[in-house]
Each structure stands twice: as structure tokens, then as C-alpha cells.
């Protein structure tokens, strides 16, 4: 992994996910286990690939598994209780996606740190998968769920809560199908992210009086305009075989802006708003 990708992943492990878990109804032991696994997971990024790095990454993968297990329990209880309203059901899908996504990152990290391919994917691609499922997976789905609740019964809010998890899943499925399928997932995810940004700007910020919080929400919403255009250009270039930004350029632009501008600013703003946990 490059140092820049390492920093992005560490931000997800040690800051964005722990802060985001405070916005979700999660038991204290789940949050403690997360930190206990994230610390060695972050350390694994800075040593050479091999047994030691893979072992440290495995501790992190275990923490993501605990969170995913809690998501499974939550999904079971939701299924037993039944979906009472469409907006509630879609919001719950977004929350469950946020809780389950880091597990994909955890498994990918173990194999990447071991220096092995996984399902035919080289370590270099696995590294990007680790980053992707912290931000497009966890952070984006979490913020979509929060925005969906804040915007009430609006159709755009429900669409955003559905499109972000669906787009994330389609992008993952596209890895196993072809580049055109991945492009389709990128289109759906982009539509969902743009809806999240628009609702954040027009609905969530409207009732916020604190300047810092309003500023954080504004940055989180605004950067999505550019970062998702980059995502579409890369996905289309891969599918059509036309010139497109390099992976290094995408990490330095799309990756950095989404990690720091969207995810970090967005989660920080929602923590300042102190909403009732989802």
C-alpha cells in the first residue's frame, strides 16, 4: 500500500468508524472490541507484507466480524418486529449496510497484508477495497440513514437511503462480473450520494444555527459533486477502455476528498448535532 492509502484507511479505522458507531445503537462492548482490533489493524499497514502483518490484520478482521454479527442480530429483530413504514425500512437497510461493510474491508486487509490474491484480486486492488468499504460502505450508508431520518417521509430521502446501499452492493458485485456491471453500480451509488449531498445542503443545514456544524455539513455535501464525477469517469474509462484518471490520481483526489471532506466532516457534524442513535 502507498502511504497515502494507508493514511486514508487509518482515518476510517481509528476515527470515522468509531465516531460513527456512537451514532448507531451499538453495545459498549462492540465499540471496545472495535478499538481493540483497529489498533493492530492500523499497525499492520506500516510493516511489510507477511505473517506478522496478516496476523495483526486478522485481529482487525475479527473486530469487523463482531460488528457484522451485531448487524445480523439487529436484522433478525427487525425482521421479527416487521417493517412499520417504508422510510424506516429503508433507513434500517442503510444502517445494516454501514455495520456490515467493514467486514468486507477486514477480510480484504488480511489477504492484502499476507500478499496473496483473494478470489482472483491482486493485493493492490484489495488495498483499494479496504478503503472503499470504510467510506463508500460504512460512512456513506450511515450518513444516508441519518439524512433519511432527518428529511422525514420525503421520497428523495427514501431514495437516498436505498441507492447508497444498493450502489455499494452493485459495485462489489461488479468486481465479479465485469467493468460494465461495476459502472452500473457506480451510477447508482453516485445518484444516492448526490441525493445525500442535496438533502444535507437543503434540509439538514436549514435548521442548524451553529456555524461550525453548518460549515462541516456544507463541506460534506459539496465535495460529493466533484468526487462522484471522478468515480464515474474512472468506472466508465475502465469499462469503455478510454483514457481515465489513474489509480494514484483517484486516491489523491477522490479518495482524500471523500475521506476527509465527506466522511470526516460529515460524521463530525452529525456528532455535534447529537441526534438520537439510529
From TrEMBL:
Record keywords, A-Z: Membrane, Transmembrane, Transmembrane helix
Origin superkingdom: Bacteria
Membrane-crossing residue ranges in chain numbering: 6-24, 31-47, 53-73, 93-111, 123-144, 156-177, 183-204, 216-237, 249-270
Protein known as: YndJ-like protein
Native organism: Planotetraspora phitsanulokensis
Amino acid at each position: 500500500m502507498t502511504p497515502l492509502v494507508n493514511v486514508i484507511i487509518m482515518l476510517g479505522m481509528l476515527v470515522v468508524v468509531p465516531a460513527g458507531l456512537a451514532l448507531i445503537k451499538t453495545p459498549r462492548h462492540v465499540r471496545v472490541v472495535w478499538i481493540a482490533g483497529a489498533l493492530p489493524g492500523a499497525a499492520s499497514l506500516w510493516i511489510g507484507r507477511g505473517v506478522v502483518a496478516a496476523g495483526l490484520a486478522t485481529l482487525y478482521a475479527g473486530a469487523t466480524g463482531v460488528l457484522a454479527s451485531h448487524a445480523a442480530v439487529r436484522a433478525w429483530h427487525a425482521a421479527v418486529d416487521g417493517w412499520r413504514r417504508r422510510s424506516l425500512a429503508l433507513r434500517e437497510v442503510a444502517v445494516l449496510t454501514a455495520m456490515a461493510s467493514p467486514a468486507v474491508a477486514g477480510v480484504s486487509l488480511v489477504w492484502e497484508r499476507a500478499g496473496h490474491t483473494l478470489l482472483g484480486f491482486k493485493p493492490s486492488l484489495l488495498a483499494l477495497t479496504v478503503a472503499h468499504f470504510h467510506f463508500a460502505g460504512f460512512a456513506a450508508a450511515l450518513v444516508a440513514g441519518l439524512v433519511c431520518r432527518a428529511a422525514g417521509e420525503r421520497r428523495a430521502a427514501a431514495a437516498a437511503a436505498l441507492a447508497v446501499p444498493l450502489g455499494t452492493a452493485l459495485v462489489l458485485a461488479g468486481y465479479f462480473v465485469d467493468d460494465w456491471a461495476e459502472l452500473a453500480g457506480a451510477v447508482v451509488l453516485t445518484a444516492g450520494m448526490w441525493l445525500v449531498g442535496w438533502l444535507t445542503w437543503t434540509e439538514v443545514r436549514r435548521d442548524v444555527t451553529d456555524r461550525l456544524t453548518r460549515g462541516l455539513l456544507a463541506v460534506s455535501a459539496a465535495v460529493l459533486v466533484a468526487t462522484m464525477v471522478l468515480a464515474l469517469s474512472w468506472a466508465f474509462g475502465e469499462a469503455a477502455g478510454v483514457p481515465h484518471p489513474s489509480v494514484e490520481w483517484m486516491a489523491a483526489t477522490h479518495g482524500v476528498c471523500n475521506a476527509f471532506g465527506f466522511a470526516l466532516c460529515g460524521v463530525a457534524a452529525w456528532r455535534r448535532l447529537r441526534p438520537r442513535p439510529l
